[in-house]
Design brief:
By secondary structure, this protein is α/β, with parallel strands linked by helices. It has a single domain, classed as 3-Layer(aba) Sandwich (Rossmann fold), CATH 3.40.50.
Length: 233
């Protein structure tokens, strides 16, 4: 537990100090800080698995943005998806994911930022962005969410969850986090559950919200289940 806490502190020091880019930060933690043990891969896999039923996944085409080392893919692969595309900025993270799913032809990985990747209209039944809402660039929310809407099939689902813990603890910490973090590294419009929800309402209809707990004893993230609405963006 102590080593895990130390690794988290090193991680956030790298991520928010401005000394390294997001890509450089995750290259470092995928190797030097043993990312899967720091986040507890198994806990994350279980938390994400509990969000979805077999009917949500079976025969579906799925896009996992900021897929990292493949926790979500591990969580749903036994629920028989037709295809999964994992996108991540960091080659070191993807190398771990590729080894994890080396023999599964249903899975494709793309080494790009989710702001640079593109797909045909109506390509996916389900799109997920987990543990990465803070990386939607400040001022580019419209471009990101408009792309999500375009890539989804009609009546399909986008699931995104807030990065920082919600509830009273989250609201207590939010001013401190904003004070010490540049908007370049943390988008205040999409990081916290109450600001993310406000932003999502511009582009989607939220039909379900569910709290998830990844770390034993910690406060919970809030997952938003969204469908496209008829509003013009």
């Amino acid at each position: 537990m102590i080593n895990r806490l130390i690794n988290f502190l090193k991680w956030y020091k790298y991520e928010y100090s401005g000394k390294a880019s997001t890509q450089e930060t995750y290259e470092m933690i995928s190797k030097d800080l043993n990312y899967d043990k720091t986040i507890d891969f198994t806990e994350r896999k279980i938390a994400l698995s509990n969000l979805f039923s077999i009917n949500d996944i079976k025969d579906k085409k799925i896009l996992d943005l900021a897929c990292g080392t493949g926790a979500f893919i591990s969580a749903v692969i036994d629920k028989n998806p037709k295809k999964i595309v994992g996108v991540d900025l960091t080659e070191g993270m993807l190398n771990i994911a590729r080894k994890r799913f080396v023999n599964d032809k249903r899975i494709t990985f793309i080494n790009k930022s989710f702001m640079d990747v593109d797909f045909k209209e109506g390509s996916f039944d389900l799109i997920l962005l987990a543990n990465a809402s803070r990386y939607i660039p400040f001022g580019e929310e419209k471009r990101f969410f408009t792309n999500i809407r375009r890539w989804l099939k009609k009546d399909s689902v986008f699931v995104i969850h807030s990065d920082f813990w919600g509830g009273s603890f989250g609201k207590l910490m939010a001013p401190i986090i904003k004070l010490v973090t540049n908007k370049k590294y943390l988008n205040p419009n999409t990081t916290f559950d109450w600001t993310l929800e406000k932003e999502l309402h511009k582009y989607f209809s939220i039909f379900k919200k569910e709290y998830i707990k990844e770390i034993t004893g910690a406060s919970m993230h809030l997952a938003f289940f969204c469908k496209t609405n008829n509003q013009k963006s």
